[in-house]
Specification:
The chain is mostly helical. The chain has one domain. The protein has four helices and no strands. The longest helix is centred in the first third of the chain and has 59 residues. The mean pLDDT is about 90. Keywords: Cell membrane, Membrane, Protein transport, Transmembrane, Transmembrane helix, Transport. Belongs to the exbB/tolQ family. It comes from Candidatus Venteria ishoeyi. One of its GO terms (biological process) is protein import.
């Protein structure tokens, strides 16, 4: 238990260095990662049951050649794509917001730096460095979390495309 306490203290010290904006970046990236993990869970555990059910519905139809049958097939494929893509736009928005939050932290840190310079001049280097660390840490955190989110967002988009194509191939015309 003491090891966990030390690690938590290190994390809290780091978060304190980044200021309030770093907490916003932390919770935004936590939400993004929760949604990414949910999507992978959906792809691996939930979606295969849906796909099997839709394929069973299609195969239970007596005819597959009519105009109506084509619309049913298109509807099933569209439903699959919608279910697969459900939270992807939110993940993409969060991925785009994170660098902007890092930039906000940079601005906040630089404003604090100039306030420190205005108040103390060059006499208090420690206070000035503290303000600069806010700018650098939040920039780094915003960019790092956005890059990881960008990779997984692109990977999930590719999977949606691939799974939609597989669904179209499964729902064949006789």
């Amino acid at each position: 238990m003491p090891y966990f306490s030390v690690e938590l203290d290190i994390l809290l010290d780091f978060m304190e260095l980044g200021g309030a904006v770093l907490w916003v970046i932390f919770f935004t990236s936590l939400l993004m990662w929760t949604l990414i993990i949910e999507r992978y869970w959906f792809f691996h555990f939930t979606y295969p049951r849906y796909r099997k059910r839709w394929q069973t519905l299609w195969n239970a139809r007596k005819e597959h050649q009519s105009w109506y049958a084509h619309r049913v097939r298109e509807g099933l494929i569209a439903q699959a794509e919608n279910d697969l893509r459900l939270v992807l736009p939110i993940i993409e928005v969060l991925t785009r917001i994170l660098p902007l939050l890092g930039l906000l932290g940079t601005v906040v840190g630089m404003v604090k730096t100039f306030d420190t310079l205005n108040y103390f001049g060059m006499d208090n280097i420690r206070a000035m460095m503290s303000s600069i660390s806010i700018a650098l840490i939040t920039t780094m955190a915003g960019l790092l979390t956005a890059l990881s989110g960008l990779y997984f967002s692109a990977n999930l988009s590719r999977r949606v495309h691939d799974e939609t194509r597989k669904m179209a191939d499964l729902l064949t015309f006789d």
